[in-house]
Amino acid sequence: MDNAWTITFDEPVAYEAGLLFQYRLLAARQAGKIPDTVVLLQHTPTVTLGNRGRDNYLLKSEQEYADLGIDLFQVERGGDVTFHGPGQWVLYPILHLGGNEADAHGYLFNLEEIAIQTLATFSVDGFRREGKSGTWTEQGKIAAIGFRLKRWVSFHGMSFNVENELAGFETIVPCGLEGEPVTTLSKLLGEDMPSMPAVGSKLLDCFEEVMGRNLIRYQSMDLLPEALMACDPPRF
Amino acid sequence: MAIPEDFFYSKSHEWVSFEGEVATIGITDFAQSQLSDLTFVELPEVGTTFAAGDEAAVVESVKAAADVYAPIAGEIVEINPVLEDAPETINADAFGAGWLFKLKVMDESELDVLMDANSYEEICPQS
């Protein structure tokens, strides 16, 4: 099994800082300076629109988002509008998908599978829905997906609702799907709720299983491998 | 889907078919299958020139967006008019009706970097 890195941030990261970190990893991965790398983090409250994101799915004005303390970004990933905030794990796999190592199932299927298998370890039934991507439960959507490929290296990825407040989702039409509820693992499990680190660790375990990679686990910036810190910041 | 024997290929999963000094370019069947159902294609304007490896187009499915690169240098002489209303044509016929754009080749010495069908097949995952 190929080795890959994973870097987990314990504290919520501002969206823009997370994006710049992804760009740095993307450039380093494209240049072959680092192996496949997965970032696991939580964001401070942010609404993002995808590449073709339609702003009629935003239910507030720019000023109202600012007043609510929610950052607003249009980003280059596929997919529509979504919300990120503390208590939600975000998985950003920076993977080279173009060669022999690519899985015939396809990357989108595999991301959904990671969420389904993670839910299964907590005895929650997660499933796909025809024509609607992401991962769903009986109570609503729990994982949202949107990614970009540049030179067949992925960035952006998947968010998985653990114990986040759902109020942020009420300011948007998530993924442009009207009338579809959003849920969290804590709503599904109630008192038997595991900790954020425990859920994060399960997401990474399932990533290893589904993507067929062995993860070497790093914790936040201060312990980053030297090879990464030595990489030039990208120019976009 | 079989990989056409008489086309050439790039590492980033574009195909190239030559007719005189004009090259038709598209994405391979492997590329479209990894992206699933395409919903939007952003194509370059006729008259734009690209160096080999430049970003020339973007293809998008519901959840994914991927850059397409000019495999060789050239000037855009035609774009596929079908794709604006029917991007799914690429999923249905990646090597035919789903072509993206045509380039007038600027530097024939560059053609050496392209792979033939056999070499390309070797870099694709075995399903």
Report on the structure:
The complex is a heterodimer of chains A (236) and B (127). Chain A has a single domain, classed as 2-Layer Sandwich (BirA Bifunctional Protein, domain 2). Chain A is 26% helix and 28% strand. Chain A contains 6 helices and 11 strands. Chain A has helices at 15-30, 62-67, 107-121, 185-189, 196-211, 226-229; strands at residues 2-8, 37-41, 46-49, 71-74, 82-84, 88-94, 127-129, 132-137, 140-150, 153-161, 213-219. An 8-stranded mixed beta sheet of chain A has the order 7-8-9-10-6-2-1-11, sandwiched between helices. Chain A has a 3-stranded mixed beta sheet with strand order 4-3-5. Chain A is globular, with a radius of gyration of 17 Å. Chain B has 127 residues and is of the alpha+beta class. In chain B, 14% of the residues lie in helices and 35% in strands. In chain B, the strands form 2 sheets. Chain B has a 6-stranded antiparallel beta sheet. In chain B, strands 4-6-7 form a 3-stranded antiparallel beta sheet, with no helix packed on it. The interface between A and B is medium-sized, with 28 and 24 residues. Strand 9 of chain A pairs parallel with strand 7 (64-69) of chain B.
- Uncertain parts of chain B: none
Could you spell the SSE succession of chain A in H and E letters? Answer: EHEEHEEEHEEEEHHEH
Highest-level CATH class of chain A? Alpha Beta
Percent in helix of chain A: 25-40%
Structurally, how many domains make up the residues of chain A?
1
Oligomer: heterodimer
Low-confidence sequence ranges of chain A: none
CATH architecture of chain A: 2-Layer Sandwich
- The largest sheet of chain A has its strands arranged as 7-8-9-10-6-2-1-11
Q: Nearest-angstrom radius of gyration of chain B?
A: 13 Å
Q: Beta-sheet strand percentage of chain A?
A: 25-35%
